[in-house]
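User: Please go through the entry that follows and flag anything odd:
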Amino acid sequence: MKVRSHVSMVFHLDKCIGCHTCSVACKNIWTDRPGAEYMWWNNVETKPGTGYPTGWEDQVNYKGGWELTQGGELRLRAQTRMSALTRLFYNPNQPGLDDYYEPWTYRYRDLFDSPQGDDQPTAVPVSLITGQPIDIERGPNWDDDLSGSPLYAEKDPNLDKLTEDERKMLFEIEGISMMYLPRICNHCVNPSCVASCPSGAIYKRGEDGIVLIDQDACRGWRACVTACPYKKTYFNWKTGKSEKCILCYPRLETGQAPACFHSCVGRIRYMGVLLYDASRVEAAMKVPEAQLVDAQRDLILDPRLPKVRAAALDSGVSPEMLDAAERSPIWRWVKEWKLALPLHPEFRTMPMLYYVPPLLPVSGRVGQAMYEHDTEELLSDVKKARLPMRYLASLFSAGNVGVVGEVMHKLAAVRIYQRSRHVGGDDPERVARVLRDACLTAEDADAIYRMTALTDPSERFVLPPIQREEAISGADNTPCSVEFRKGNCGLGQTVSPDRGA
């Protein structure tokens, strides 16, 4: 057993209001500069929708992540060792500026310097790249709240597996059948961006798992942009280097939450430490798609077990990290309650950002009338939720409807239990049966409710002190946990333990 610690995250989608405060906070700190104007390390998408960049989930087009060969081996979708050389200067699967948007500003002097006339002067939009006037055709959240739009929602790749009846129900009530999906870099355990880099510039920090790009080593080949299935690596056209979310590691090292976490209005974001068995990552990422969520859960270790603690200390995990892992809210969401799921686990990168799927008002359509759930028909009502179960499964469980169904069943059971406590009117025996069917106790339901609605920052963000100078001397800083080809991750070289951030 090779124990490693990883700073991990949970986003609770039932609480996201789509205000984009997180995106603005990140933009103001990290990407408000020449060459990075189009970058949104944090963005919030409306689902159903095509997202940012357009259609990023379509790996038939973009070739991101890993695929399982017929021989049962993991292989990059984007390239092989030989094809990587031929794609250094041109990659047909790389997103272009049109897939993002051309950043613009306004010629504000036109408001003051325009000659006197009968019409109100306007500020002409101009490109931040060329400086020439442009027609604005898209932006980073261009499809915001357009879940029923035929131009955006209907092109969502996650709708492909829905039946005609499910699609019809979804778009008949498009005004209320949508969800917000905030996204940042997942800081994956098995990152395909690391494996694809020809210059070995991308690496994972051994002490906390944060994926970073060494700006001195980066040569701007942009293989990482193609290889990342979540499209969270960007090319800075001004510096000729690739950039990505750094999880605000300067803030983490001083015990502060990242800017997007700290500024979140809906308090949807949780951060903590997970321990996992790095020796089993490769095997876990080779299982069939329907088993990927369970395989990822099985890798996560209980920090309270003596043998896990001993193995973690032997691997260089600090006692402070172990203490943080014991108090981690991520452990409870992902492993104890099994309510948080990875985004598109079929990409086989093992993302360390998990999502609690949105329960939304559990109501659907029976004939021409809307109905609310009751304790007798809970599970059937969940299956008829406004966002089809198969759609959520496409997002969070590689199509395994059973996994998402269990999560939704638990969330609905907690809602019914809390309604019975605070509002009343439900038969106590029925409520107890609902909890049993969801494999929850009353204590679990109270704990989930408290973690969802009543926690303060000290409970949502359990951050250990990360002494970078100590970690450098003792950590095993290899590029990724899946040590392909005897420590050589894809084309990148093994990173020495003294490599700085």
